[in-house]
């Protein structure tokens, strides 16, 4: 395998977060996974290649910050004082936060390649990559640019309904075709836990993600419930592990991070 070049040389593991369709919580899971890995003592980078819907700067409350240039390229925005979680997003390059990115494919692909190669990530245990929904040229551009890092892990997010599960099946086929190592499926918005009595109501049905994983022969990493506190923490840019440690989503997210951590020695990348 060729050695990872330049700015990627210090990146140990890469995880692409994918979903068959939009709005299933891919950015949420990317952000929360990055926070949970950071809480486990890891140095984490988050790369937002969802060029048309860059939501991570807002979710992590760093939307007013700017990226700077250094001799090795762009310096990502550090989310925490300890500088253990850094973020690069097209959101930092837009003049206004609600400006639309209306570029054609080649320009988007060129920017994705630049995001991968021209960001001075420094040493990272994990680089978590939030991708656009579906499968597109942008996914291929990200995979091609990241491939020199070694085998790339893929985490696929779905909601429990059958329609989302169908989209995920296509996503898993894509992962296999381009040689991503499928770490597993996460079922998001899986039931609503009542804040009064802790009874779980399966708003959108339940178990589609687990069933899909079983059929596809890939690991099921866990279910994250619909959680108003998680939603609130994202709206307010707060870390739910700190602000809402008793929220129902928190143990689920921690256990997914633990599964990812336990995969690493088995050669994630
Ligand atoms: N488990 C959850 N509990 C409560 N709210 C959630 C949960 N997961 C996601 N959300 C909320 O659902 C909305 C969509 O989530 P998110 O932006 O992460 O989806 P996405 O799949 O990345 O969307 P897209 O890529 O299409 O923009 C957000 O407002 C987020 O706060
Ligand atoms: S689950 Fe029970 S306690 Fe919770 S809102 Fe419904 S009726 Fe009330």
UniProtKB/TrEMBL annotation:
Keyword check for Iron-sulfur: yes
Binding positions for ATP per the UniProt entry: 20-27
Subunit structure: Heterotetramer of 2 NUBP1 and 2 NUBP2 chains. Interacts with KIFC1. Interacts with NUBP1.
Cofactor binding note from Swiss-Prot or TrEMBL: Binds 4 [4Fe-4S] clusters per heterotetramer. Contains two stable clusters in the N-termini of NUBP1 and two labile, bridging clusters between subunits of the NUBP1-NUBP2 heterotetramer.
GO cellular component assignments: axoneme; centriole; cytosol; nucleoplasm; spindle pole centrosome
Role noted for this protein: Component of the cytosolic iron-sulfur (Fe/S) protein assembly (CIA) machinery. Required for maturation of extramitochondrial Fe-S proteins. The NUBP1-NUBP2 heterotetramer forms a Fe-S scaffold complex, mediating the de novo assembly of an Fe-S cluster and its transfer to target apoproteins. Negatively regulates cilium formation and structure.
UniProt KW keywords: 4Fe-4S, ATP-binding, Cytoplasm, Cytoskeleton, Iron, Iron-sulfur, Metal-binding, Nucleotide-binding, Nucleus
Cofactor: [4Fe-4S] cluster
Name assigned to this protein: Cytosolic Fe-S cluster assembly factor NUBP2
GO MF term (any one): ATP-dependent FeS chaperone activity
Positions of transmembrane segments: none
Cytoplasm recorded as keyword: yes
PANTHER family per record: CYTOSOLIC FE-S CLUSTER ASSEMBLY FACTOR NUBP2, NUCLEOTIDE-BINDING PROTEIN NBP35 YEAST -RELATED
GO biological process: iron-sulfur cluster assembly
InterPro entries: Mrp-like_CS, Mrp/NBP35_ATP-bd, NUBP2/Cfd1_eukaryotes, P-loop_NTPase, YlxH/NBP35
Organism of derivation: Catagonus wagneri
SUPFAM superfamilies membership: P-loop containing nucleoside triphosphate hydrolases
Pfam family, one: ParA
Family: Belongs to the Mrp/NBP35 ATP-binding proteins family. NUBP2/CFD1 subfamily.
Residues bound to [4Fe-4S] cluster: 194, 197
Subcellular location as annotated: Cytoplasm, Cytoskeleton, Cilium axoneme; Cytoplasm, Cytoskeleton, Microtubule organizing center, Centrosome, Centriole; Nucleus; Cytoplasm, Cytoskeleton, Microtubule organizing center, Centrosome
Primary location: cytoplasm
């Amino acid at each position: 395998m060729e050695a990872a070049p330049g700015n990627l040389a210090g990146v140990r593991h890469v995880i692409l977060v994918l979903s068959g369709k939009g709005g299933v919580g891919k950015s949420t899971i990317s952000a929360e996974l990055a926070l949970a890995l950071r809480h486990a003592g890891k140095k984490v980078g988050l790369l937002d290649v969802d060029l048309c819907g860059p939501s991570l700067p807002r979710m992590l409350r760093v939307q007013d910050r700017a990226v700077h240039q250094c001799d090795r390229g762009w310096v990502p925005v550090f989310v925490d004082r300890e500088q253990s979680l850094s973020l690069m997003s097209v959101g930092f390059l837009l003049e206004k936060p609600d400006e639309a990115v209306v570029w054609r494919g080649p320009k988007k692909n060129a920017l994705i390649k630049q995001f991968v190669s021209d960001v001075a990530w420094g040493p990272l245990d994990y680089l978590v990559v939030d991708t656009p929904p579906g499968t597109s040229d942008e996914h291929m551009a990200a995979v091609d640019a990241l491939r020199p890092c070694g085998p790339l892990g893929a985490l696929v997010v779905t909601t429990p309904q059958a329609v989302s599960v169908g989209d995920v099946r296509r996503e898993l086929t894509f992962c296999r075709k381009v040689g991503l190592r499928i770490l597993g499926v996460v079922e998001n918005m899986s039931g609503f836990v009542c804040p009064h009595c802790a009874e779980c109501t399966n708003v959108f049905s339940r178990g589609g993600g687990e069933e899909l994983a079983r059929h596809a022969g890939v690991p099921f990493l866990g279910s994250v419930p619909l959680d108003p506190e998680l939603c609130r923490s994202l709206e307010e840019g707060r870390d739910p592990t700190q602000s809402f440690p008793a929220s129902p989503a928190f143990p689920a997210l921690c256990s997914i991070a633990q599964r990812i951590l336990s995969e690493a020695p088995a050669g994630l990348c």
